[in-house]
Amino acid sequence: MGGQSSQPPPPPPPPLLNKPWRRIDWGNKQESLEYVIYYKLHNKEQQLRILLHGQCGAGKSSFINSVQSVLRGRMYRQALTANTSGDSFTKKYKTYKIERDSPDVFYPFVFDDIMGLSTDKGVIVDDIKLILHGHVKDNYKYNPESKLSEGDEHFNKTPTDNDKVHVLVCVAAADTLSTMSDEVLRQIKEIREEASKLDIPQLAILTKVDAACPEVKKDLKNVYRSTYMKEMMERFSAAVGIPMDCIFLVKNYHEEIDLNEDIDLLILNALKHILYSGEDFVKMKLQTRIE
Ligand SMILES: Nc1nc2c(ncn2[C@@H]2O[C@H](COP(=O)(O)OP(=O)(O)OP(=O)(O)O)[C@@H](O)[C@H]2O)c(=O)[nH]1
Ligand SMILES: [Mg+2]
């Protein structure tokens, strides 16, 4: 303007950083796997309840299947998933235990899968708050008209500590992050606020990294070198208030029929941090009870 020569725009950042900004020990799956395989809590009766929430189609059910696949060493598809858009495919609140060694022995952590958030069904947020407090029984079928009421057979009036949520994980699809509606973001924040009141630790996983960035699709090991993925994480962190060190990039099993070590490593990395947070929370609760 005004005859002055304007500065040329800065060159776009290179698609890949020279060095990854977060370290993943590629090629060493055993260490992470052993951490989970031998994972136990001090109190044998204690169980960590991990609740996954997030937009419809974000990959919540797929993440549970992916964790099961890694831990069982073969593809596992217990939680139903679907390639649909719009309404949530998962309609029920369901708890998934993971078998360890034999059919009646389970890992000391469980995953709660729920219906996804969408723009028009605000009732789900009230139900999720009840889940955080342990008031919702397994297999509750979500009713879009009204939240679960105290008189319902699926309302748990006297939740034990194992019924309550110990880690809240927000799942978001990296490839559609930029189009996430303000309403869904608001719902995520509202759920986080309730969890914060209960001191429940909160993490996030960004799925579908393969669909979000061509460099990552080419080689999953590029995931923490991709400038685009880092920017997505930063934007998501700013939008929902979850700090960067609590956000993990993941590619779920979705079309593969065989396990892949790189996919496993990202899933184990996220799972390890989820378990650390849950364990710290349980310890903190125990201490405050003793004091
Ligand atoms: N490319 C790719 N596709 C994925 C990934 N994770 C999940 N998907 C696909 O995304 C679709 C939705 O996945 P779901 O696991 O059903 O998502 P959800 O969050 O449980 O969805 P609702 O139950 O509807 O809320 C399915 O077609 C999956 O195969 C991923 O990491 N990469
Ligand atoms: Mg689902």
UniProtKB/TrEMBL annotation:
InterPro entries, A to Z: P-loop_NTPase (IPR027417)
Gene symbol of the encoding locus: LOC114849822
A GO biological process held by the record: immune response
Source species: Betta splendens (Siamese fighting fish)
Cited Gene3D superfamilies: P-loop containing nucleotide triphosphate hydrolases
Name this polypeptide is given: Interferon-induced protein 44-like
Signal peptide: none
